[in-house]
Amino acid sequence: MSKGESTRAALLDAAVNLASQEGLGGVTIGRLAEKVGMSKSGLFAHFSSKANLEVEILASAVARFVEVVVSPALKAKRGEPRVVALFQRWLAWGNELTGGCIFVAASVELDDREGEARDALVRTQRDWLETLTTASRSAVSEGHFRKDLDVEQLAHDIYCLGLGHFHVSRLLRDPQADKRVQSAFERLLHDARAHRRKE
Amino acid sequence: MSKGESTRAALLDAAVNLASQEGLGGVTIGRLAEKVGMSKSGLFAHFSSKANLEVEILASAVARFVEVVVSPALKAKRGEPRVVALFQRWLAWGNELTGGCIFVAASVELDDREGEARDALVRTQRDWLETLTTASRSAVSEGHFRKDLDVEQLAHDIYCLGLGHFHVSRLLRDPQADKRVQSAFERLLHDARAHRRKE
Fold first, then answer.
1. What is the model's pTM?
2. Which residue of chain B is at minimal alpha-carbon distance from A171?
3. B199 occurs within a structural domain
């Protein structure tokens, strides 16, 4: 990594953390310059515009998400173990950045705001849903989950549960949050498993 | 209502809508003044400070939530019909304000920011979870839901599902969002029902 590249990486790290706390809107070039002790003009050399900065922050957050959630989870055994690994690492991701899940923060900001940053965020979330769907599908082909399982529905339900958990744990600070989310996840797995008797 | 009171109510309406789009942070006294065509000093007469304005916005949103979600749903028959009415009206609430659910937007902003507004928001969310818990408990006593149901777990699961749905529908704009959320909710009800066979 050249000096320019490593400065840029350090800047993006700081920006991702700031965005997890304040949202993308809170990361102005001025504010970031202050945080890292650089001049605004120095920062402009790295990120030509606020819109460009937002897209780069999201790309950097995705790279980190892949590194700490997706890649290690994909090493788990195909089938249910991999679905479990993806979910558990996703929950831990909620504590990876200072201000919680940056994608949840950005979702609320960008849902009404058309543009490149929104498009980038939607792609990340679709990718994540697809990762959950694919893992669930391989759990069907491994015989862990039942053959008639609606794998997209399961991915949707896991996704909602994880998003809900970020609210329950970070806003409500419910001491039962972990127990509750695990219990709900266990019920989703139970319903999905192949040995389930017909009711 | 006196003229002062009705002006104040109109201001709060505009502020609640603006907050649903931009978050509480986006509702500055200057911005609100511009939106409603009043002077900043005129607005200061109504809301002494930004912090005070945030608490009033939340209180006003709660009053509206009670009016369009809770009160009509509580008229539904005790038991499962009431749980269903609360959930369905909550989903519709996501389209009540221009920018979606104001409480979801505020959650992301306030989770890391101690203060009166955060405390007020946490109270609203606990009240909502309690409303769901109480309705579920009466569904048990009516014999609609099984006796060994963990009603707090059910309320938690419904809460996560609804929050997740706001992301799936508003950010991802998934055309299947409604079908998916209803299917997940039906599974929660199915698991909760008294006629469920032991597995």
1. 0.92
2. B111
3. no
* Structure confidence by residue, pLDDT tens digits, B73-121: 999 999 999 999 999 999 999 888 888 899 998 998 898 889 999 999 9
**In the Cβ-directed half-sphere of B6, how many Cα atoms lie within 13 Å?**
3
Least Cα separation, residue B185 to chain A (angstroms): 10
Query: What CATH code is carried by the domain that includes residue B46?
Result: 1.10.357.10
- Please report whether residue A30 resides in a domain: no
Whether B198 maps to a domain, the answer reads no
| A163/B161 Cβ within 8 A | no
Cβ-defined contact of B167 to A107 (cutoff 8 Å): yes
- Is B108's CB within 8 Å of A111's CB? no
Check A23 against B108: CB less than 8 A apart: yes
How many structural domains does chain B have? 1
Q: What is the DSSP string of chain A?
A: --HHHHHHHHHHHHHHHHHHHH-GGG--HHHHHHHHT--HHHHHHH-SSHHHHHHHHHHHHHHHHIIIIIHHHHTSPTTHHHHHHHHHHHHHHTTTSTTS-HHHHHHHHHTT--SHHHHHHHHHHHHHHHHHHHHHHHHHHTTSB-TT--HHHHHHHHHHHHHHHHHHHHTS--TTHHHHHHHHHHHHHHHHBTTPPP-
State the Cα–Cα distance between residues A151 and B13, nearest whole angstrom: 42
Cα–Cα dist B153/B96, whole Å: 27
Contact status, residue A136 vs residue A83, Cβ threshold 8 Å: yes
Residue from B172, B173, B178 whose CB has the most chain A CBs within 10 Å, to mutate: B172
Owning domain of residue B88: 3-192
Decide if A65 is inside a domain: yes
pLDDT tens string for chain A (199 positions)?
788 888 888 899 999 999 988 889 888 888 888 888 888 888 888 887 888 899 999 999 999 999 999 999 999 999 999 999 999 999 999 888 888 899 998 998 898 889 999 999 999 999 999 999 999 999 999 999 999 999 999 999 999 999 999 999 999 999 999 999 999 999 999 999 987 555 4
